[in-house]
Amino acid sequence: MAFEGFPPLIADQLHYLLNHSPDSIKIENVWSGNKINPKILDRFTLVIPYCLDNIKWDVIYNSEYSIDAPDFVFGPDDEDFVPCSSTIVPDDDDDQISSLKKALSEWDNKDSKRLHVLIQGFRDQYVAYQRRRVGQVDDDRVKFEISTVLTRKGIEMQMVSGIDKPEEVKFAVPLVMDMNINKMMVVCPWKHQQKIYLQVVYPIVRKIESTPSAPRLKLVSSSELKALFSVDDVKLPPWMNEMCLAEYLPHLEETLERQIQEAVSAIDSRRSFIEALTLFLGRPLEADPTFCRQATFLTASGQFTFMVHFFFSTQFPKQQPTLVLQSCQHLNQSSVPVKSNLFTEYPWSPRWEVGRMAERVCDFLTDEAVNFKKYCNEVVLQH
Amino acid sequence: MTSHFPSLCSSRPPLAMDDLSLEKIEISGATLASLIQRASSSPSDVDGLIFGQIHRIVSSNLSDDPPADSLASSSSSDQIVATVTSFVCSGKTVSFYDPLGRVDSRRIDSLRVDSPDRLIGWFSARRKTANRPSMRELAVASSLSSQFHLPVEDLKNPKLTNMASCVFFLLTTPSSDQCIHTHEYRGYQFRSSKQRLEPRSVGIVNIGPAFRGHYGSFRPKSGFPPLICELDSSAMIVDRDEGSLGAKKQAVKDQKEIDALAEGLQVGDLKRLVGAEAANNTGGIEDMYEKMLAKVQSLASDVEKSSDRVFQQEKHNRKLRNRIARMGR
Fold first, then answer.
1. ∠ at Cα B71 (B68, B77), nearest 5°?
2. Closest Cα partner for A112 from A44, A17, A30, A46?
3. Whose CB among A313, B96, B103, B263 lies 3.0–4.6 Å from B143's, allowing a Cys bridge?
4. Known PANTHER family for this protein (chain A) (predicted)?
């Protein structure tokens, strides 16, 4: 990240914000407002994850007066978002608003946590602001959903409207909150807490209809989680007519919890399979130690030496690993080692013991090595 | 954002403080150009105060039929227009308010010095940023509106209505460098009922027949000094016979100022430039012009020296500010 252009104290605050925020905040653009030295950067756009989408806020410092507090420009659709005004929300959030006000009015540019405190506070206020907006929508179903589902923690809502867009209300509902996926891993490979959300989009129809149409549902997780568990593999239970979220969620969470447990235990079964392979193929050249999704072994058939790559899906052992053979002795015309096609079909049963699985794969490899050697020789002869 | 300060700008308390909507904001081309120049020549972002007047214009929808309810029908076609006449730039940001946007009336007084114009609002100029109001700008506009008011000028209906100093000008530059499109400006009005800055169209008033209508409701702010020529011609005496002692004293004082500029040359001496004696007297006039030119030249070099000193001082200030900003590292 290019922090060099920022005055040191601004860079400190930015560093702290990016390293300590629970959501992965990013910087999108940086600019200079300085005429005398346009290399000094003092304004930037923050991309902040919100409701499974991003919001963009501009932060404006003044490099000529870098001891002054920054100013903020919020999104073009959020002109009513006034996080430091207590006139709009007179009730529960007063403590936070007054601490935000204090952080700004008693600004201390040497305190590197200040920007983080402000952005975090503004984001909390933004959650409340969007909830107020959604609460004002004239739609009985949305009103009912809010009243029944609000006891769940961490729900974020968003009002989507525009001139050429149909009006919609989006919910991001965090699921299986009791399950700490990071802690289920032996060695946690992730910097951020892994969460799974259900995105629910309610179309707002102005016409009076007897039954409102089903919301659009989608499971969302970070791309990091895909190494362990892909939410795309989860089949969502059907949404019945006149159903509400409070009814829908418990069943979904139950399924999800079971599948995550299975995904975590699948790591162990993959590991023990790789360990079983070492009896036949020796120590692997390379293996993914965290998720056990990949392993490569060096092997030989007579004089012919080649590598075997194993690729495991998250559905192992239900789905058998994919194999690729790669010669250590043959290069094709562009000087790349010759590789076989993917092997996805060979004798396999998920009910076998891991030892039996390893044995049968090695039997298959012994047979296939002959074919592969022949194939390699043909490729080399061609040029 | 609520204020407990009394109205400081207007000496009279506001009689009617409806949240009136401005039809538009007018600014002369020269004032706008000067504002943009000030924003683009400053080292970094700046803010400042803008002055002017607000007046009610009755659009002419006259008809022969006597209106049933004259007040209602006339007020419905009224337009309230704000006119920017001058501004003062602070040279920095957060100049007359705190980081939360709370306006400090003492800092406003020291910034406006003794500008005779009425405060109608403020402006903010920032480079490479979005051209919509920021969080702090909204707060400042709200705070300023709640503390400062000015009367709405209304020639036809002189009952006093006050209006908040609610005008806000935002000057920005596009975030990507462009050759043609280099500056953006927008006018806003702060509406206290909605706690929101609403965009208003900005009308640029220039000199010329097409704009004559704009000056109809205008009252001159700075009258010309009464330059009374001490000519011995009897025709002039009639005009200046009336007048109090005070006016006469003022006239004598003004005359003294003019005489000082004329380097001892009397206005009456101009008579001698005509006729037979003219050739002998041109030397005296030329002498006066030369003296004046020398004065102007020394003034110009004084200005040059002092602006150099100002520049050096500004450079020094920047260094000090940067040092303060780095302290604690």
1. 100
2. A17
3. B103
4. BRISC AND BRCA1-A COMPLEX MEMBER 2
Q: Do A9 and B137 touch (CB under 8 A)?
A: no
Burial class of residue B190 (count of CB atoms within 10 Å of its CB; 0-12, 13-18, 19+): buried
Verify cis geometry, omega within 30 degrees of 0, for the bond prior to A250: no
Quick check: A260 and A179 in contact, CB under 8 A? yes
Quick one: which of B267, B248, B214 has its CA closest to B26?
B214
Write b or e for each residue in B306-318: b if 16 or more Cβ atoms lie within 10 A of its Cβ, otherwise e: eeeeeeeeeeeeb
One-letter amino acid for residue B259 of the chain: D
Q: What is the DSSP letter of B278?
A: H
Amino acid B254: pLDDT: 79
Residue A273 included in any domain: no
Spatial strand order of the sheet with A53-60 comes to A26-31, A43-50, A53-60, A71-73
**Over the stretch B22-65, which tens digit does the pLDDT of each residue have?**
999 999 888 999 999 999 999 899 999 999 999 888 765 555 55
**Neighboring chain A residues of B195 at a CB cutoff of 8 Å:** 82, 85, 87-88
Residue A128 lies in a domain: no
Q: What are the tens digits of pLDDT across the range B5-14? A: 443 444 344 4
pLDDT score of B147 more than 90: yes
Which of A37, A61, A64, A114 has the most B C-beta neighbours within 10 Å, making it the best mutation to test the interface with B?
A64
The answer to whether the CB atoms of A105 and B329 lie below 8 A apart is no
Cα A54-A290-A256 angle, rounded to 5 deg: 55
Per the structure, the count of domains in chain A is: 3
Segments forming the whole domain that contains residue A205: 137-266
DSSP code for B97:
B
Clarify whether residues A116 and A156 are in a common domain. Answer: no
Among all residues of chain B, which has the CA nearest to that of A101? B100
- pLDDT tens digits along A94-108: 788 888 898 898 998
**Contact at CB, A9 and B99, closer than 8 angstroms:** no
Same domain, A24 and A68: yes
**How many angstroms separate the CA atoms of A358 and A271, rounded?**
12
